[in-house]
Write a structure and sequence with these properties.
heterodimer; A: 210 residues; mainly beta; globular; B: 188 residues; 6-stranded antiparallel beta barrel; 12 strands; 53% strand
Chain lengths: 210, 188
Protein backbone atom coordinates (compact mmCIF):
# COMPACT_ATOMS: atom_id res chain seq x y z
CA UNK A 1 0.00 0.00 0.00
CA UNK A 2 1.36 3.36 -0.95
CA UNK A 3 1.37 6.28 1.34
CA UNK A 4 -1.02 9.11 0.78
CA UNK A 5 0.81 12.02 -0.81
CA UNK A 6 0.84 14.81 1.65
CA UNK A 7 0.96 17.56 -0.93
CA UNK A 8 -2.70 17.65 -1.89
CA UNK A 9 -3.94 19.78 0.95
CA UNK A 10 -4.74 23.42 0.34
CA UNK A 11 -2.63 24.32 3.38
CA UNK A 12 0.93 25.42 2.57
CA UNK A 13 3.47 22.59 2.58
CA UNK A 14 5.30 23.48 5.76
CA UNK A 15 2.05 23.58 7.77
CA UNK A 16 0.53 20.50 6.20
CA UNK A 17 -1.75 18.17 7.93
CA UNK A 18 -1.37 15.01 5.91
CA UNK A 19 -4.55 13.26 6.88
CA UNK A 20 -7.58 14.11 9.02
CA UNK A 21 -9.92 11.20 9.81
CA UNK A 22 -13.11 11.59 11.72
CA UNK A 23 -14.15 8.65 13.81
CA UNK A 24 -17.88 8.59 13.86
CA UNK A 25 -19.42 9.51 17.10
CA UNK A 26 -21.61 6.68 18.24
CA UNK A 27 -23.73 8.67 20.64
CA UNK A 28 -23.22 6.10 23.34
CA UNK A 29 -21.43 7.11 26.58
CA UNK A 30 -17.71 7.27 26.01
CA UNK A 31 -15.13 5.50 28.15
CA UNK A 32 -12.96 8.62 28.02
CA UNK A 33 -15.35 10.69 30.17
CA UNK A 34 -15.64 7.88 32.69
CA UNK A 35 -11.87 7.59 32.93
CA UNK A 36 -11.62 11.23 33.94
CA UNK A 37 -13.67 10.58 37.06
CA UNK A 38 -11.09 8.19 38.42
CA UNK A 39 -7.82 8.78 40.20
CA UNK A 40 -4.65 8.62 38.16
CA UNK A 41 -1.93 6.20 39.24
CA UNK A 42 1.75 6.30 38.40
CA UNK A 43 4.09 3.41 39.16
CA UNK A 44 7.81 3.78 38.56
CA UNK A 45 11.22 2.54 39.59
CA UNK A 46 12.51 5.92 40.74
CA UNK A 47 11.05 9.39 40.87
CA UNK A 48 12.11 12.88 41.80
CA UNK A 49 9.15 14.53 43.47
CA UNK A 50 9.68 18.25 42.91
CA UNK A 51 7.18 20.00 45.14
CA UNK A 52 8.28 23.55 44.31
CA UNK A 53 7.88 23.10 40.54
CA UNK A 54 4.85 20.83 41.00
CA UNK A 55 6.20 18.03 38.83
CA UNK A 56 7.49 14.49 39.14
CA UNK A 57 10.20 12.99 36.97
CA UNK A 58 10.27 9.21 36.87
CA UNK A 59 12.51 6.61 35.30
CA UNK A 60 13.44 2.92 35.40
CA UNK A 61 10.05 2.02 33.98
CA UNK A 62 6.89 4.06 34.31
CA UNK A 63 3.25 3.07 34.06
CA UNK A 64 0.30 5.46 34.08
CA UNK A 65 -3.24 4.21 34.72
CA UNK A 66 -6.58 5.98 34.87
CA UNK A 67 -9.68 3.90 34.26
CA UNK A 68 -9.25 2.32 30.84
CA UNK A 69 -6.20 4.48 30.13
CA UNK A 70 -2.88 2.75 30.39
CA UNK A 71 0.49 4.09 29.31
CA UNK A 72 3.74 2.12 29.54
CA UNK A 73 7.03 3.98 29.11
CA UNK A 74 10.64 3.92 30.19
CA UNK A 75 10.65 7.39 31.68
CA UNK A 76 8.40 10.39 31.95
CA UNK A 77 7.42 13.58 33.71
CA UNK A 78 4.09 14.54 35.23
CA UNK A 79 3.32 18.27 35.18
CA UNK A 80 0.65 19.78 37.40
CA UNK A 81 -0.95 23.13 37.89
CA UNK A 82 -2.35 23.25 41.37
CA UNK A 83 -3.99 19.89 41.97
CA UNK A 84 -4.62 19.12 38.32
CA UNK A 85 -2.36 17.16 36.02
CA UNK A 86 -2.03 19.18 32.83
CA UNK A 87 0.56 17.19 30.92
CA UNK A 88 2.51 13.97 30.96
CA UNK A 89 5.64 13.64 28.81
CA UNK A 90 6.89 10.14 28.12
CA UNK A 91 9.74 8.41 26.34
CA UNK A 92 10.29 4.78 25.57
CA UNK A 93 11.15 2.15 22.99
CA UNK A 94 8.31 2.50 22.37
CA UNK A 95 5.83 4.22 24.64
CA UNK A 96 2.52 2.36 24.46
CA UNK A 97 -0.76 4.21 24.98
CA UNK A 98 -4.04 2.31 25.34
CA UNK A 99 -7.49 3.70 26.04
CA UNK A 100 -11.09 2.87 25.24
CA UNK A 101 -12.28 6.14 23.73
CA UNK A 102 -15.56 4.73 22.53
CA UNK A 103 -17.13 1.45 23.69
CA UNK A 104 -18.30 0.69 20.16
CA UNK A 105 -14.89 1.15 18.59
CA UNK A 106 -12.95 -0.73 21.20
CA UNK A 107 -9.50 0.11 22.45
CA UNK A 108 -7.24 2.58 20.73
CA UNK A 109 -3.57 1.67 20.88
CA UNK A 110 -0.78 4.09 20.02
CA UNK A 111 2.94 3.48 20.02
CA UNK A 112 5.73 6.01 19.58
CA UNK A 113 9.20 6.80 20.82
CA UNK A 114 7.96 10.05 22.35
CA UNK A 115 4.51 11.04 23.61
CA UNK A 116 3.21 14.29 24.94
CA UNK A 117 -0.11 13.61 26.65
CA UNK A 118 -1.72 17.01 27.10
CA UNK A 119 -4.32 15.82 29.51
CA UNK A 120 -5.95 19.17 30.16
CA UNK A 121 -6.65 19.64 26.43
CA UNK A 122 -7.28 15.98 25.58
CA UNK A 123 -4.45 15.89 23.03
CA UNK A 124 -1.91 13.15 22.43
CA UNK A 125 1.14 14.15 20.39
CA UNK A 126 3.25 11.29 19.10
CA UNK A 127 6.69 11.36 17.50
CA UNK A 128 9.08 8.72 16.31
CA UNK A 129 7.95 5.44 14.67
CA UNK A 130 4.31 6.13 15.37
CA UNK A 131 1.76 3.35 15.01
CA UNK A 132 -1.89 3.93 15.89
CA UNK A 133 -4.30 1.02 15.68
CA UNK A 134 -7.89 0.16 16.44
CA UNK A 135 -9.59 -3.19 15.69
CA UNK A 136 -12.55 -1.55 13.94
CA UNK A 137 -10.77 1.18 12.06
CA UNK A 138 -7.36 -0.10 11.12
CA UNK A 139 -3.75 0.91 11.53
CA UNK A 140 -2.02 4.21 10.85
CA UNK A 141 1.71 4.68 10.91
CA UNK A 142 4.11 7.53 10.37
CA UNK A 143 6.74 9.64 12.06
CA UNK A 144 4.51 12.23 13.73
CA UNK A 145 0.82 12.28 14.60
CA UNK A 146 -1.63 14.03 16.81
CA UNK A 147 -4.75 12.50 18.33
CA UNK A 148 -7.57 14.62 19.71
CA UNK A 149 -9.05 12.32 22.32
CA UNK A 150 -12.14 14.47 22.76
CA UNK A 151 -13.18 14.70 19.11
CA UNK A 152 -11.38 11.45 18.19
CA UNK A 153 -9.47 13.00 15.30
CA UNK A 154 -6.19 11.53 14.18
CA UNK A 155 -3.93 13.75 12.10
CA UNK A 156 -0.44 13.53 10.73
CA UNK A 157 1.87 16.47 11.00
CA UNK A 158 4.76 17.91 9.08
CA UNK A 159 5.86 16.60 5.74
CA UNK A 160 5.97 12.99 6.80
CA UNK A 161 3.88 10.42 5.00
CA UNK A 162 1.22 8.45 6.75
CA UNK A 163 0.50 4.87 5.93
CA UNK A 164 -3.01 3.65 6.46
CA UNK A 165 -4.55 0.21 6.46
CA UNK A 166 -8.31 0.29 6.84
CA UNK A 167 -9.81 -2.64 8.65
CA UNK A 168 -12.95 -4.50 7.72
CA UNK A 169 -13.94 -4.69 3.98
CA UNK A 170 -11.38 -5.02 1.20
CA UNK A 171 -10.84 -1.30 1.07
CA UNK A 172 -8.94 0.11 -1.87
CA UNK A 173 -5.32 0.94 -1.18
CA UNK A 174 -4.67 4.56 -0.26
CA UNK A 175 -2.78 5.40 -3.42
CA UNK A 176 -1.41 8.78 -4.25
CA UNK A 177 -3.69 10.25 -6.90
CA UNK A 178 -1.62 11.68 -9.71
CA UNK A 179 -4.44 13.40 -11.57
CA UNK A 180 -6.17 10.18 -12.63
CA UNK A 181 -9.61 9.16 -11.56
CA UNK A 182 -9.33 5.47 -11.13
CA UNK A 183 -13.02 5.05 -10.50
CA UNK A 184 -12.36 3.35 -7.23
CA UNK A 185 -13.54 4.74 -3.88
CA UNK A 186 -10.81 6.83 -2.34
CA UNK A 187 -9.94 6.37 1.33
CA UNK A 188 -12.90 7.75 3.19
CA UNK A 189 -13.60 9.26 6.51
CA UNK A 190 -16.67 7.08 6.89
CA UNK A 191 -16.95 3.83 8.76
CA UNK A 192 -16.33 0.68 6.73
CA UNK A 193 -19.49 -0.45 5.01
CA UNK A 194 -20.76 3.02 4.17
CA UNK A 195 -20.63 4.23 0.60
CA UNK A 196 -18.36 7.17 0.08
CA UNK A 197 -19.52 10.15 -1.92
CA UNK A 198 -17.26 9.82 -4.91
CA UNK A 199 -17.67 13.38 -6.08
CA UNK A 200 -16.79 14.94 -2.78
CA UNK A 201 -13.99 12.64 -1.74
CA UNK A 202 -12.34 12.43 -5.13
CA UNK A 203 -12.20 16.20 -5.42
CA UNK A 204 -10.67 16.46 -1.96
CA UNK A 205 -8.20 13.66 -2.45
CA UNK A 206 -6.89 14.50 -5.88
CA UNK A 207 -3.46 16.00 -5.62
CA UNK A 208 -3.24 19.66 -6.26
CA UNK A 209 -0.42 20.84 -8.34
CA UNK A 210 0.32 24.36 -7.20
CA UNK B 1 37.08 -55.70 93.66
CA UNK B 2 39.50 -52.82 93.32
CA UNK B 3 42.18 -52.32 95.85
CA UNK B 4 42.40 -49.14 97.87
CA UNK B 5 45.49 -48.10 95.89
CA UNK B 6 43.68 -48.42 92.56
CA UNK B 7 40.70 -46.40 93.82
CA UNK B 8 43.03 -43.64 95.05
CA UNK B 9 44.69 -43.46 91.61
CA UNK B 10 41.30 -43.17 89.82
CA UNK B 11 40.14 -40.41 92.15
CA UNK B 12 43.46 -38.56 91.70
CA UNK B 13 43.25 -38.61 87.87
CA UNK B 14 39.55 -37.62 87.94
CA UNK B 15 40.46 -34.57 90.03
CA UNK B 16 43.26 -33.71 87.59
CA UNK B 17 40.82 -33.94 84.66
CA UNK B 18 38.31 -31.71 86.42
CA UNK B 19 40.96 -29.12 87.21
CA UNK B 20 42.17 -29.15 83.59
CA UNK B 21 38.63 -28.57 82.33
CA UNK B 22 38.05 -25.65 84.68
CA UNK B 23 41.28 -24.00 83.55
CA UNK B 24 40.39 -24.54 79.88
CA UNK B 25 36.84 -23.17 80.30
CA UNK B 26 38.13 -19.99 81.90
CA UNK B 27 40.33 -19.21 78.89
CA UNK B 28 37.58 -20.05 76.35
CA UNK B 29 34.84 -17.90 77.81
CA UNK B 30 34.30 -14.51 76.16
CA UNK B 31 34.04 -11.54 78.40
CA UNK B 32 30.49 -10.27 78.84
CA UNK B 33 29.75 -6.93 77.11
CA UNK B 34 29.71 -3.94 79.31
CA UNK B 35 26.13 -2.90 79.86
CA UNK B 36 25.55 0.64 81.01
CA UNK B 37 23.14 0.73 83.84
CA UNK B 38 21.19 3.45 85.46
CA UNK B 39 24.10 4.29 87.60
CA UNK B 40 26.68 4.66 84.75
CA UNK B 41 28.42 8.01 84.83
CA UNK B 42 26.59 10.54 82.65
CA UNK B 43 23.69 12.91 82.85
CA UNK B 44 20.01 13.06 81.96
CA UNK B 45 17.67 15.95 81.57
CA UNK B 46 13.87 15.75 81.40
CA UNK B 47 11.36 18.13 79.86
CA UNK B 48 14.01 19.69 77.66
CA UNK B 49 13.55 22.67 75.36
CA UNK B 50 16.46 24.25 73.54
CA UNK B 51 17.59 26.50 70.70
CA UNK B 52 20.69 26.43 68.54
CA UNK B 53 22.14 29.33 66.62
CA UNK B 54 24.84 29.44 63.95
CA UNK B 55 28.15 31.33 63.86
CA UNK B 56 26.31 34.46 62.77
CA UNK B 57 24.03 34.22 65.76
CA UNK B 58 21.03 33.30 63.63
CA UNK B 59 18.51 31.03 65.19
CA UNK B 60 18.51 27.78 63.17
CA UNK B 61 17.24 24.87 65.26
CA UNK B 62 14.70 24.52 68.04
CA UNK B 63 14.18 21.23 69.80
CA UNK B 64 12.06 19.67 72.47
CA UNK B 65 12.27 16.26 74.13
CA UNK B 66 10.86 14.36 77.08
CA UNK B 67 14.35 13.29 78.05
CA UNK B 68 17.97 13.70 76.98
CA UNK B 69 20.50 11.14 78.18
CA UNK B 70 24.25 11.38 77.75
CA UNK B 71 26.47 8.51 78.88
CA UNK B 72 30.08 9.24 79.58
CA UNK B 73 31.38 6.38 77.43
CA UNK B 74 29.25 7.28 74.39
CA UNK B 75 29.44 10.01 71.76
CA UNK B 76 25.69 9.85 71.29
CA UNK B 77 22.95 11.66 73.11
CA UNK B 78 19.84 9.56 73.48
CA UNK B 79 16.56 11.42 73.04
CA UNK B 80 13.09 10.36 74.14
CA UNK B 81 10.10 11.76 72.18
CA UNK B 82 12.09 14.31 70.21
CA UNK B 83 10.59 17.17 68.21
CA UNK B 84 12.93 19.29 66.15
CA UNK B 85 12.19 22.41 64.10
CA UNK B 86 14.55 23.78 61.47
CA UNK B 87 14.42 27.53 60.99
CA UNK B 88 16.10 29.42 58.22
CA UNK B 89 15.37 32.69 56.52
CA UNK B 90 15.60 31.09 53.08
CA UNK B 91 14.18 27.67 53.83
CA UNK B 92 10.63 27.03 54.97
CA UNK B 93 10.33 25.67 58.47
CA UNK B 94 10.51 21.88 58.83
CA UNK B 95 9.34 19.80 61.78
CA UNK B 96 10.45 16.29 62.74
CA UNK B 97 8.96 14.03 65.38
CA UNK B 98 9.60 10.46 66.49
CA UNK B 99 9.27 8.10 69.41
CA UNK B 100 13.01 8.08 70.02
CA UNK B 101 16.22 9.33 68.53
CA UNK B 102 19.82 10.11 69.09
CA UNK B 103 22.25 12.80 68.23
CA UNK B 104 25.57 11.61 66.81
CA UNK B 105 28.02 14.19 68.07
CA UNK B 106 30.85 12.93 65.87
CA UNK B 107 28.92 13.05 62.60
CA UNK B 108 26.79 15.98 63.74
CA UNK B 109 23.63 14.30 62.56
CA UNK B 110 20.36 13.16 64.02
CA UNK B 111 18.84 9.69 63.90
CA UNK B 112 15.09 9.39 64.44
CA UNK B 113 13.52 6.02 65.14
CA UNK B 114 9.93 4.71 65.23
CA UNK B 115 6.90 6.57 63.89
CA UNK B 116 8.96 9.32 62.31
CA UNK B 117 6.91 12.22 61.00
CA UNK B 118 8.14 15.15 58.98
CA UNK B 119 6.27 18.15 57.64
CA UNK B 120 6.94 21.62 56.38
CA UNK B 121 5.29 25.02 56.82
CA UNK B 122 5.67 26.66 53.41
CA UNK B 123 4.41 30.03 52.31
CA UNK B 124 2.40 28.45 49.49
CA UNK B 125 -0.26 25.93 50.48
CA UNK B 126 0.45 23.75 47.42
CA UNK B 127 4.01 23.14 48.73
CA UNK B 128 2.78 21.60 51.97
CA UNK B 129 3.83 17.97 52.44
CA UNK B 130 3.72 15.32 55.15
CA UNK B 131 6.13 12.41 55.36
CA UNK B 132 6.07 9.28 57.45
CA UNK B 133 8.64 6.57 57.82
CA UNK B 134 10.08 4.28 60.47
CA UNK B 135 13.65 5.56 60.50
CA UNK B 136 15.32 8.73 59.33
CA UNK B 137 18.83 10.14 59.28
CA UNK B 138 18.88 13.93 59.32
CA UNK B 139 21.84 16.13 58.33
CA UNK B 140 20.96 19.50 59.88
CA UNK B 141 23.78 21.46 58.27
CA UNK B 142 22.99 20.23 54.76
CA UNK B 143 19.23 20.39 55.32
CA UNK B 144 18.88 16.85 53.99
CA UNK B 145 17.47 13.61 55.30
CA UNK B 146 17.39 10.03 54.10
CA UNK B 147 15.87 6.69 54.82
CA UNK B 148 16.14 3.17 53.43
CA UNK B 149 12.73 2.20 54.80
CA UNK B 150 9.24 2.55 53.41
CA UNK B 151 8.13 6.16 53.21
CA UNK B 152 4.69 7.66 52.74
CA UNK B 153 4.44 11.17 51.36
CA UNK B 154 1.24 13.21 51.18
CA UNK B 155 0.99 16.42 49.22
CA UNK B 156 -1.79 18.53 47.81
CA UNK B 157 -3.92 16.17 45.78
CA UNK B 158 -1.36 13.36 45.73
CA UNK B 159 -0.27 10.42 47.86
CA UNK B 160 3.03 8.63 47.29
CA UNK B 161 4.71 5.54 48.71
CA UNK B 162 8.24 4.36 48.04
CA UNK B 163 11.03 2.35 49.57
CA UNK B 164 14.03 4.52 50.32
CA UNK B 165 14.17 8.25 49.86
CA UNK B 166 16.48 11.23 50.05
CA UNK B 167 14.92 14.52 51.07
CA UNK B 168 16.20 17.93 50.06
CA UNK B 169 14.50 20.32 52.43
CA UNK B 170 16.14 23.40 50.94
CA UNK B 171 14.63 22.89 47.48
CA UNK B 172 11.65 20.79 48.59
CA UNK B 173 12.70 18.20 46.03
CA UNK B 174 12.72 14.57 47.10
CA UNK B 175 14.27 11.57 45.44
CA UNK B 176 12.20 8.42 45.85
CA UNK B 177 14.56 5.52 45.33
CA UNK B 178 12.48 2.45 44.48
CA UNK B 179 9.00 0.93 44.18
CA UNK B 180 7.38 4.31 43.68
CA UNK B 181 3.57 4.41 43.61
CA UNK B 182 1.73 7.70 43.16
CA UNK B 183 -1.99 8.34 43.38
CA UNK B 184 -3.25 11.66 42.03
CA UNK B 185 -6.71 12.58 43.26
CA UNK B 186 -8.26 14.02 40.13
CA UNK B 187 -11.21 16.31 40.65
CA UNK B 188 -13.36 17.67 37.82
Amino acid sequence: MKAINSHFSPVPADWLRVLVLLLCLSGTPRALSQDRQENLYVDAGQCVFDVKNNQSRCRDGMQVRQGSLRIDAEQGTVFRQGKQIVRIELRGRPVVFRQVLNPQDGELEAKARYMDYRKAKGLLILKGQVVVSNPNLGTFSGEAMEINLNSQEISGSGDERVHMVIAGELAPAAEAQSGKDTGEAAPTTERPGKQADKNNTSSEDKPRHD
Amino acid sequence: MFSGRQIRRVVFFAMLAGLAYVLWAQYQEKPAPVQPDAFTRGYAATGVMGKISNAQGEFVVRFQANELIQYDHSDNIEIRRPTVWFHDQKTPQWQFQAVSGRFDRRGQRLFFDQQVKMENRPRLAQEKIHLQTSRLWIEPDARTARTAEKVTLTGQGVGVTAIGAEFDMGNNRHHLLSHVQMEYHESN
